[in-house]
Amino acid sequence: MHGTFSVSHQIEPAILYFGTPVVLIGSTNEDGSFNLAPMSSAWWVGWRCMLGLAANSKTTENMIRTGECVLNLPSAALVGAVDRLARTTGSDPVPSGKRMRGYRHARDKFGLCGLTAMPGETVAAPRALECPVQIEARVAHVHEMAEEDAVWRGNLAAIEVRVTRVHAHSGIMMDGEPNRVDPDRWRPLIMSFQQFYGLTSEKLQRSELGQIPEAMYKPPGWKPAA
Predict the structure, then answer these.
(1) What is the pTM of this model?
(2) Which of 132, 108, 120 is nearest to 189 (CA)?
(3) Is 5 a domain residue?
(4) pLDDT 10s digit of each residue in the chain, 226 long?
(5) What's the number of domains the chain is made of?
(6) Which domain holds residue 47?
(7) CATH classification at residue 168
(8) In a domain, 34, yes or no
(9) Which of 136, 218, 220 is CA-nearest to residue 180?
């Protein structure tokens, strides 16, 4: 047996955020102004993404109403900007659950965090130009979550979006590969149990999956739909 193992215990943590990249979701309010909200419950398969959101959040409301968003991925260097958005909401009045946790209404989220807003090219929702990756997307499906749970029913939504365009800063791209992000240059901001972290500067070891050319994951003849 290799290494030393601790004894496992049954636990009931209030949250299960073991560590995922932070996403700043850009959306458009009813009056055409921009909203920007941090979250970290997101995962990707191909050019699809699932977003876990509170059903009553302003971002969820905007995405369902407009059918679009931009998933802006901040680098670890933008941690200060992301943290300035913490405990703010575009909802007015502030929902009771968020008010209890100390949230306040903020109308100009981009001004508050110091990032630059620009409408997307395939959607009207805003890109955050300082974010090294900006992913434009349209809502494909909205799934209500925890419908069998009397406490959580109606409070959570899983929104599937299809990506329509990806923008990336040149500084994170792989040399000689115009469509490949270099994981040695890309340093996403990570949230784990409500704390901010970054990735180490070096790979832990050789990856067997990393030997598969990325192009092999793209179905023959497939092109993103606007």
Answers:
(1) 0.89
(2) 132
(3) no
(4) 566 778 999 988 888 888 899 999 999 999 999 999 999 999 999 999 999 999 989 999 999 999 999 999 999 999 999 999 988 988 888 888 788 888 889 889 999 999 999 999 999 999 999 999 999 999 999 999 888 888 778 889 999 999 999 999 999 999 999 999 999 999 999 999 889 999 877 765 776 667 767 777 676 776 777 7
(5) 1
(6) 22-191
(7) 2.30.110.10
(8) yes
(9) 218
